[in-house]
Amino acid sequence: MARVLIVDDEPSILELLDLALAGEGYEVLRAANGNEALEKAELADVVLLDGMLPGITGWEVCRLLKSRPRTQHLPVIMISAMAQQLDVDRGRVAGADDYITKPFDLQEVLEKVAQALKGSSAQQPVLGRAAFSS
Q: How is 114-129 classified by DSSP, letter by letter?
């Protein structure tokens, strides 16, 4: 069973994504801040990461995950209310594999998680295969 780490400081977003992903058969891990995300990331197969987190930002968490040998292979999908092209580019520079803007379509999130997991199953780094959407 694939494990999805959801990182968001909004309890309602965590709950919504948890229910949707669990309903699709995923094991869900949760983190409410960047430090917690960094601690749990090695247990995940894909990360859904909010850009605006208290303390360490999501962009910094992404950069750190992609710079560490034990987590650099993890697909990271940024989910943020920041929807300007500059924000999307910031996600790309940090190493994100995809970017979804809030408010998001739940079906789109589920599809992108499935795509990320399918792409990572080839045991190749997914850097550079981003399909960013704005």
A: HHHHHHHTT-S--TT-
Domain assignment present for 50:
yes
Q: Any residues with CB less than 8 A from the CB of 9 and at least 6 apart, and which? A: 32, 33, 50, 52, 53, 54
Domain CATH code at residue 44 = 3.40.50.2300
Per the structure, the count of domains in the chain is 1
Which residue, 7, 124, 113, is CA-closest to 61? 7
Low-confidence ranges of the chain (pLDDT < 50): 122-134
**Pairing assessment for the beta strands 3-7 and 27-31 based on DSSP bridges:** parallel
Residue-number span of the structural domain to which 70 is assigned? 3-120
Which pTM does this prediction carry?
0.86
